[in-house]
TrEMBL record:
Its main location: membrane. It comes from Desulfonema ishimotonii. One of its GO terms (cellular component) is efflux pump complex. Belongs to the outer membrane factor (OMF) (TC 1.B.17) family. Keywords: Cell outer membrane, Coiled coil, Membrane, Signal, Transmembrane, Transmembrane beta strand, Transport. This is TolC family protein. GO terms for molecular function: efflux transmembrane transporter activity; porin activity. It is found in: Cell outer membrane. Pfam families: OEP (PF02321). Residues 1-22 form the signal peptide. The lineage of its organism: Bacteria, Pseudomonadati, Thermodesulfobacteriota, Desulfobacteria, Desulfobacterales. Residues 241-268 form a coiled coil.
Length: 427
């Protein structure tokens, strides 16, 4: 473990020692969560949900209305002057409406809770994206290190081959063979450099630092200094997933909101009772207190109303509310099964990655020894050019396998963390 681990983890240790003040994974996650417009979009949705709750709460308060009316007639009548005005005020309070106001308010609260869970989910998604982007940069850096070392080995063997050819110990064809492979390795170096640059660009975008580009020297890779511990079983993680996953909790809250909307829709079949207190003042001119015949009226009124027929619209609303509730329940069931399946797949991938890492350790040891033997044999003129080229290729492949297996362990570890809602929620 120590021998093979140094290949995948050596760079993280060295970079940490050189850049003690570099961005850590946690700092990059915090920056992304606090600065991405995607988060602000969900925060705006949360604020709208809060306003919806306040709107529904307003139905419990009395309503106050004032109006002032000025009338101009062509002549006086028996009941009105040519010029008159009416000032009126009314305070109305709903006494009963089938508890619709209560159900709407409670439903709004559940929708607000659902929006909170959706915000938590996008925060978790962004933290996962940042972790995978930083891991991709680390992998590309390790990949570049391998292809550079491989190119160096080919260049050294090419130099030795040219000297052997000059003294007649090696054929020209063998020298050219090494040259072709060396040139191909140089192309691989350029490809790896471009890949690293693109991964840095992707990390910059994911973190939300477009105004100041992230460079390799600004990054710390301490998160990859130690391999994650071996995982538990599906039975251990599944209950945690079903309990904590924000998307599931959001749908559960939406399901409760839909259930309350059914009751709210049913309220339309009940009578409605409103209590109102009104004041009205009649004026003989444009001013409400003008003239000797100005009159005041105060009226307390109870109104009970009930719709008998509206073209079956209220029953249509009830059926729609029930269908909405069923739709949310179906979504919840589907998402639960999808997450369970993803959890199983992640655990399978993690198991394969750990096994691959163990095999890659042994292969790397063998490839290093094989390359050492062939290098000595080539210098003594025993091994052919093909032998030394194959030995270098096998060593590079073994190192790539270590990197790939390490990436598989870390990437699936972070996906598992996301699956059980394990990233920091207090960022």
């Amino acid at each position: 473990m120590i021998r093979a681990g140094r290949l995948f983890l050596f760079m993280a240790v060295m970079l940490f020692s050189r850049h003690a003040c570099a961005y850590t994974l946690e700092e990059l996650m915090a920056h992304a969560v606090n600065n991405r417009d995607t988060i602000r979009e969900y925060v705006a949705d949360l604020e709208k949900s809060r306003e919806d709750v306040r709107f529904f709460r307003g139905n419990f308060y009395p309503r106050l209305d004032l109006n002032y009316t000025v009338n101009q007639l062509d002549d006086d009548t028996s009941s009105e002057n040519e010029k008159n005005s009416i000032f009126a005020g009314a305070m109305t309070l709903n006494v009963f409406s089938g508890f619709k106001d209560t159900y709407d308010y409670q439903s709004g609260q559940y929708r607000y809770t659902a929006t909170e869970f959706q915000l938590d989910a996008i925060k978790q998604d962004i933290q996962l994206a940042v972790a995978l982007r930083l891991l991709a940069v680390y992998q590309s850096k390790a990949w570049l290190r391998v292809v550079e070392d491989t190119h160096t080995l080919y260049r050294e063997r090419y130099t030795e081959a040219k000297l052997k050819h000059k003294v007649g110990l090696l054929k020209k064809a063998d020298v050219l063979k090494i040259k072709v492979v060396m040139d191909d390795a140089a192309q691989n170096v350029r490809d790896a450099q471009a890949r690293l640059a693109k991964d840095l660009n992707d990390l910059t975008r994911t973190v939300g630092m477009e105004d100041r580009r992230i460079t390799l020297g600004q990054l710390g890779f301490t998160a990859f200094r130690k391999l994650p511990e071996s995982v538990k079983t599906y039975e251990d993680y599944a209950p945690v997933l079903l309990e904590k996953r924000s998307e599931l909790n959001a749908l559960r809250s939406q399901q409760e909101a839909a259930r309350l909307q059914i009751r709210s829709a049913r309220a339309s079949v009940y009578p409605r009772a409103d209590l109102s207190l009104g004041y009205q003042r009649y004026g003989e001119n444009y001013l409400p207190d003008g003239g000797d015949d100005s009159e005041d009226e105060v009226r307390l009124q109870m109104t009970v109303s009930m719709n008998i027929f509206d073209g079956f619209q209220k029953y249509t609303d009830i059926r729609k509310a029930r269908l909405d509730s069923k739709s949310v329940r179906y979504q919840l069931n589907e998402l639960e099964q999808t997450f369970k399946n993803e959890l199983r797949n992640i655990l399978e991938d993690l198991d394969v990655a750990f096994n691959n890492y163990q095999v890659a350790q042994e292969s790397l040891t063998e490839a290093e020894e094989n390359q050492r033997i062939n290098e000595l044999s080539f210098r003594k003129g025993v091994a052919t050019a093909t032998d030394i080229l194959d030995a270098i290729s096998y060593l590079s492949q073994a190192r790539f396998n270590i990197i790939t297996a390490g990436y598989g362990i870390f990437s699936n570890h972070y996906r598992l963390t996301r699956m059980i809602e394990g990233f920091d929620k207090n960022i």
